[in-house]
Structures are given as structure tokens and as C-alpha cells.
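Practice problem 4.
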């Protein structure tokens, strides 16, 4: 097996030297399979190149790297749904996790035999490509919004509860009230950090 590491770019149509080299190689038919690498934490920007594959009849796999970063940002991606929309395998992974490479290798082996391609009409204008990407991501945007709303509600409740507790128990002069306020801020910060970790690592697995 020969692996060709092509110049990195976000598109195959802007006309830079890197994009011309990449496009010429892919369009030549020399590639049995193209791996399109995308940053899962910046999915819309990273998928712009994928729109250039529509109609090219080039077997491809979409590899979503940095899934750990995306998860930390509250982004949940249904890779199976995205795969069904595209018609090609979608592999979620984090390059720092060795166990993810096994799935990638197995997917590559299967794709070399099945030759999956992104069907549809080739797009020329930037608006067509942007609309195509928006259509792909339409089902995934609410996850981030809902996650943000949940965090906002939880954190607001924490701050309100802790502040009320320390405020109710504050006695004496303004110095003691100030001390209680400081303790409330510190306690709220610690609890928020803990709950942020729980929401990120547990609730959105």
C-alpha cells in the first residue's frame, strides 16, 4: 500500500499551489481511496473541502479528528447519521488516542474493497457548497445549543444557591458580610468547575 500525504488545504477550488497539487492528484485517478481529514471542533470550516468531492466519483472516507476537543466544547456529532447523509464512512477519532487507529485501519480496509463515493451534482459556487455543508450539519447544531443552555441553567442555580446560603448566614458588620461574599465566590467557582467536568465528560458521552 502506498500512502500519499498531500498538501493541507481547506478547499480544492481556490487555486493555491497546494490546492492545485492536491486536486490534480485526486482527479488523476491514481488514488484508490482519499482520506479527508477534518477538525471536529471546527466542523463547518473543515468540511468545505468535502463539498468539492461531490460528483468526483473518488472513493473517500471522512476522518473527524480532535473529537475530544469537540466534546469539551459541548459539540456532539452523530457520525452514523453524517455517514448516511454523505454515503461514505465517517471515522471519529483523536490522534492522541492509539485505540482509535484500529478503527481507522479497519475502515480503510473495508473502503478499499467497497469504493464508497459521495454522490450528487458537482458544485461550482461558494454559496452552493456552503448550503450543502449547512444541510449536512443541520441535525447537529441543536446539541451544542442545548448543552450551552443546560450549563447556563446549572451554573446559575449553583451561584444563586451558594450566594443565598452565605448571605443568609452572614452576621455582624460589613467586614463579615464581605468575607461571606468572598467565600461564596470561591465556593461557587469550585463547584462550577466540578459540574463543568461532569457535564462535559459524563452527560454528553
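Answer key:
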Amino acid at each position: 500500500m502506498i500512502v500519499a500525504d498531500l498538501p493541507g488545504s481547506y478547499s480544492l477550488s481556490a487555486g493555491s499551489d497546494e490546492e492545485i497539487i492536491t486536486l490534480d492528484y485526486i482527479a488523476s485517478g491514481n488514488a484508490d481511496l482519499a482520506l479527508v481529514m477534518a477538525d471536529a471542533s471546527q466542523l463547518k470550516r473543515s468540511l468545505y473541502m468535502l463539498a468539492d468531492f461531490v460528483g468526483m466519483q473518488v472513493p473517500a472516507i471522512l476522518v473527524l479528528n480532535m473529537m475530544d476537543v469537540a466534546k469539551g466544547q459541548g459539540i456532539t456529532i452523530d457520525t452514523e447519521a453524517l455517514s448516511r447523509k454523505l454515503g461514505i464512512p465517517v471515522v471519529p477519532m483523536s490522534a492522541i488516542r492509539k485505540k482509535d487507529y484500529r478503527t481507522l485501519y479497519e475502515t480503510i480496509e473495508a473502503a478499499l474493497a467497497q469504493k464508497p463515493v459521495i454522490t450528487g451534482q458537482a458544485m461550482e459556487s461558494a454559496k452552493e457548497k456552503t448550503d450543502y455543508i449547512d444541510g449536512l450539519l443541520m441535525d447537529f447544531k441543536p446539541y451544542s445549543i442545548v448543552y450551552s443552555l443546560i450549563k447556563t441553567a446549572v451554573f446559575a442555580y449553583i451561584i444563586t444557591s451558594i450566594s443565598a446560603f452565605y448571605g443568609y448566614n452572614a452576621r455582624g458588620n460589613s467586614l463579615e458580610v464581605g468575607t461571606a461574599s468572598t467565600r461564596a465566590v470561591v465556593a461557587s467557582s469550585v463547584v462550577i468547575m466540578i459540574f463543568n467536568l461532569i457535564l462535559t465528560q459524563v452527560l454528553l458521552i
